[in-house]
Specification:
There is one protein chain. With about 425 residues, the protein is an alpha/beta fold. It folds into 2 domains: about 220 residues, Rossmann fold; about 100 residues, Rossmann fold, CATH 3.40.50. A 6-stranded mixed sheet has the order 4-5-13-10-11-12, with helices on both faces. Strands 9-6-7-8-14 form a 5-stranded parallel sheet, with helices on both faces. Strand 10, helix 9 and strand 11 form a beta-alpha-beta unit. Helix 4 crosses helix 5. The longest helix is centred in the N-terminal third of the chain and has 14 residues. It starts with 8 loop residues before the first strand and ends with a helix. Bound molecules: zinc ion.
């Protein structure tokens, strides 16, 4: 049976109207609060029929189940992906959708795992990546510009939110918008969801650190179509930088901060998750209700360190290189900190959403004891990619108030070069 016959339908989580995929952009313009967010939930969908299998390792850890006093703990290692994080699935979905429209350039606002995954995967396909970033994320920009197929637009005096907003406004026929607020990408997590559904016994809770919330929302969507009882999702966030916990407290789809609620130096090591806005928040909110889950927040750098210290006691995970970046280990950190939230018969699945290799400096500060194990893993990664010898040739700095016309001209200069 071919899924092509099914017209994809989405429900707006703000007004409950259902629309077909071609009407999404138009509808978003009519939702004043929703235009930058992932506000649609896929309903009837062709992927449910067409899902492929995925090879992603899931371990179980008796070291963790003893320490947390629960029946079982699964560890799903998204860090083992080619690009080292769960963003791999969103990017794979974007490439699949863009190919149907013959688009070969992908535009996002990111200097983190999403950008890295896009750079690596587009290069393997012979495609290009356009990245909007705040100029201040200088360290990461340097790494990204080493990819020959990447072009970086670095915005002066800009926040990540400015970069996101500009990136979302680009509307050129050659370019696919691969930002997380593109709701067509949510179904990209279906293969991971199916892999989890094949576990026996099934997990009762799924814990993961949350930046935008796309991951847990996408998994919940997958469970909805496979399982009778959806595991409770437990989105985890850092203290004062997790607007989603306030969305839940106030029973609102969207909640954003004006500033961080805590001194950033107490939480800065989990850079990929500290956020003023989370662009998939309405979807995560919906997923939380569907699964009857709950958020856990209040983590600080020291909680991440405690998680690494526990991880070091599991020789099997260390031997297999299952060492996440600080943002990726938040689920375990929350399970330790809030042990009393779980009971003896619970079965936890904790997703390690990113690989330590992308954040070695942070790890050196948080858990220097782990660095020997990590250096052994280093040589195995990053093969078969081509890099620029002359760094910074594929970057342009511009004012965040630059006009559309200017930005389009810069993009076309790059495309035609
Ligand atoms: Zn609506």
């Amino acid at each position: 049976m071919s899924g092509k016959m099914i017209q994809n339908i989405f429900k707006c989580l703000i007004c409950n109207e259902t629309v077909t995929s071609d009407k999404i952009l138009l509808h978003k313009q009519r939702e004043p609060d929703g235009k930058d967010y992932g506000i649609f939930w896929p309903e009837l969908h062709s992927e449910i029929v067409d899902c492929h299998d995925i090879d992603i390792p899931i371990y179980h850890s008796t070291v963790f189940s003893k320490a947390l006093n629960v029946q079982k703990v699964y560890i799903l290692d998204e860090g083992s992906n080619l690009s080292g994080s769960m963003k791999e699935h969103v990017v794979a979905k974007a490439i699949q959708l863009a190919e149907q429209k013959k688009q070969t350039i992908f535009n996002i606002a990111s200097s983190g795992n999403h950008a890295l995954s896009l750079a690596i995967q587009t290069q393997r396909h012979g495609y290009h990546a356009l990245l909007f970033v705040p100029e201040s994320s200088d360290n990461k920009i340097r790494q990204l510009t080493t990819f020959e197929n990447v072009f970086v637009l670095a915005l002066k005096d800009a926040t990540y939110e400015d970069a996101y907003s500009l990136s979302n406004q680009i509307n050129l026929p050659e370019i696919f918008n691969a930002n997380v607020s593109n709701e067509s990408l949510l179904t990209g997590f279906l293969p991971v969801g199916r892999k989890i559904c094949s576990l026996s016994p099934l997990p009762s809770h799924i814990l993961a650190g949350v930046g935008n919330g796309t991951y847990l929302a996408g998994l919940t969507w997958s469970f909805q179509h496979t399982l009778k009882k959806i595991p409770k999702i437990v989105p985890v966030g850092m203290k004062g930088a997790f607007p989603f916990e306030f969305a839940v407290k106030n029973n609102k789809h969207i909640y954003k901060f004006d500033d961080y609620g805590v001194d950033k130096t107490c939480i800065d090591e989990a850079a990929g998750s500290i956020a003023l806005e989370s662009y998939s928040m309405p979807q995560l909110f919906h997923a939380l209700k569907l699964s009857n889950g709950f958020p856990l927040s209040g983590l600080q750098n020291n909680d991440l360190r405690n998680a690494y210290l526990l991880l070091m006691k599991d020789e099997n995970l260390i031997k297999n290189g299952v060492i996440p970046e600080p943002t990726g280990i938040m689920g375990l950190a929350a399970a330790i900190k809030y042990k009393e939230k779980f009971s003896r018969d619970n079965i936890l699945l904790i997703s390690f959403t990113g690989n330590a290799l992308t954040c070695l400096d942070s790890l050196q500060r948080l858990a220097p004891e782990l660095m020997t194990d990590i250096s052994l893993q280093l040589c195995k990664k990053r093969k078969n990619l081509s890099f620029n010898k002359n760094m910074y040739q594929n970057i342009r700095y511009l004012d965040k108030r630059a006009s559309h016309k200017d930005i389009e001209r810069i993009i076309y200069d790059w495309i035609s070069a």
